[in-house]
Amino acid sequence: MNRLFPVLVTTAVFLIGFVVCSLQFPNFASTRVVADLLTDNAFLGIVATGMTFVIISGGIDLSVGAVIGFTTVFLALAIQQLGISPWLAFAAILIVCAAFGAAMGAVIQYFDLPPFIVTLAGMFLARGASFLMSTESIPINAPLYSELPDYAIKLPGDGQLTVIAMIMLAVFAFGIVLLHFTRFGANVYALGGSRVTAALMGVRIGRVTILIYTLSSVLAGLSGIVFSFYTSAGYSLSAVGVELDTIAAVVIGGTLLAGGYGFVFGTFVGVLIQGLIQSYINFDGTLSSWWTKIATGILLFAFIVLQQAMVGFARRRSRRAVGVTLS
Amino acid sequence: MALRLPRSGVPQVLAFLAILAINWTVSPQFFDIRLQDGRLFGSLIDVFNRGAPVALLSLGMVLVIATRGIDLSVGAVMAISGAIAASLADTHPLPVVLAAALGAGLLCGLWNGLLVAVLGIQPIVATLILMVAGRGIAQLITEGRIVTFTAPELVWFGGGSVLGIPAPVAITLGMLLVTLILVRGTALGLMIEATGGNARASALAGVGTTAMTMAVYVWCSLCAALAGIIAAADILGADANNAGLWLELDAILAVVIGGTSLFGGRFSLVYAVLGALIIQAMNTGILLSGFRPEFNLVVKAVVVLVVLLMQSPRLSGLGLLLSRVSK
To answer: Parallel, antiparallel, or unpaired: how do β-strands B147-148 and B34-36 relate?
Structure first.
């Protein structure tokens, strides 16, 4: 119960927000709005799943937005100009992303460098590479892209569960299984708790670190594929600043930024909350888009303070338990 | 010969001179300087002039990094102060404009300092809040438009000159001197380094670590606010979306190139400013040589990686080993 408290708070915030929106706008509580919420935030949800693993392990990955941009440009060039089949292009870009993530993880592990500066260099590299490939927005009109809406599942009411929403839900399900029910997931938590302790207990921290950043980059690549479905184009400036939205979603979802604590489900709700703010602003019509940033900032602050309070409380309790008091 | 690269500053000076020499071979008129309307012009002057905002940011950033912190919000603070300066410039006298813009910077710094020093939130997360929300606040001030102004007093900050030296360069030099006198002329610098080296031990030894941490974040935001005024004066307007965008990364990069350790505990103001100039000289060189500006990011990524690997604890351990062997 206590362990789940931050996730419960996040879920409660989302539900209360949804009810408030529904009371204010009569058309809000419909399957259409919910389905759009899932579709519009699908790429964010996928990349946030990977970021949850990274943050729980005590790291951070600033390169994800640039990887998404790189992926969309790569796909557009491969499919449109080289005429490669989309499926082959998807496979190729996921392999490239995996190698990229593994390289970052290896540098972090073997040169003992802070993750944020290594992934910052990765961000420059990926964004620069996509600029070099093309600075223009390239439309993708492969048959697969135009057929995609046909596979959407009709929901009762007016909503449609699109393919990209289904991909996101599948990724979240995969993330929950991987983090909470496998040995790899347990190792991720161990790493976030304390690297030294984890190493002493026999966790192969080098391997786990490399795998974590590989996972994050692969999911960023998948998110780029979904983003190219969403926009039907490849553009080197797409998804600028997404790394911050992603980190915000993970933190709002109750994951501790110091590592060692968090749930994939919380991240899912965190993504939905960001989407809810955006939907509210769209429905209202008079509020300007910059309120999204301010509202996200305020929520971020509130959740971080809540985390600090909880960590402080837990520490005081454990001190009392062993009979240590600080003057 | 121990690997004492970061301390001596020789590689930075050599790198700067090498890049200038490369620029000269690419463009033979690179060192041509002429005096026109009482102000110096030329490619070399341009390097200093364009590098001034990042140099200002790196002045504050280097102190923050010396306390083992990081400030991601400087770009957003630039946007806020630029927006305030631009919207007040035509209706208020210069002292009021400056006081308002710098005052906003002061408040931002206090906010960051409060979160880091008093609430004990990790710096990267604490400043992320202002990074996300700050741009929204700047857009709130400009009401989403690009605010332009014509007041000549404020225009001076971008296009004016002191004894032929462009105003941005003169201001940056002045701030460098003030900062040098403040931190190296007194014990402040030592106490900042102590805080970064080991905050707990320093606190027990009587260093006011909370006050130190607050002070460096306030100084960092003040420098950012000044850079924001210069950036706004340069384009005669404030663009809340793009002012200072990604400059936080350039500032961190400048500090890293300057040899300041990301692990806190030692810093060099002059070399951080030199780092900013190296970055700008590379930018100018890439433009002069006719390469596409898109190469910039890739080159930066490579530079970050090389400098980081030189700083890496593992590699310097290797250097120590080699020096022992050679003895």
So the answer is: unpaired
Does A313 map to a domain? no
Instruction: Quick: pLDDT tens for A149-208.
Output: 777 888 777 778 888 889 999 999 999 999 999 999 999 999 988 888 888 988 888 999
Hunting for tokens 């839900």 — which residue is that?
Answer: A169
Q: Provide the domain limits for residue A220.
A: 5-289
Average pLDDT over residues A13-26: 88
Provide the residue ranges of all domains of chain B, joining segments of one domain with +.
Answer: 5-16+47-326
Least confident of A100-104, B234-238, B318-322: B318-322
8 Å CB contact between A134 and A234 = yes
Tell me which amino acid residue A224 is.
G
**From CA B149, how far away is CA B25, in angstroms rounded?**
40
The domain total for chain A is 1
Instruction: Give the CA distances from residue A242 to residues A95, A239, B132, in Å, rounded to whole numbers and listed in that order.
Output: 22, 5, 11
pLDDT of residue A210: 94
| A→B interface, C-beta within 8 Å | 60, 107, 110-114, 116-118, 120-122, 124-125, 127-129, 131-132, 135, 244, 247-248, 251, 257-258, 288-294, 296-298, 300-301, 304-305, 308
- Rounded to two decimals, what is the model's pTM? 0.84
- Contact yes or no for A128 and B119 at CB 8 A: no
Q: Look up the ipTM and state it.
A: 0.76
Among partner residues B119, B125, B314, which is closest to A112 by beta-carbon distance?
Answer: B314
Q: Residue A314 domain-assigned?
A: no
B232-259 pLDDT tens trace? 988 888 887 777 777 888 888 888 888 7
Residue A238 has pLDDT above 60, yes or no: yes
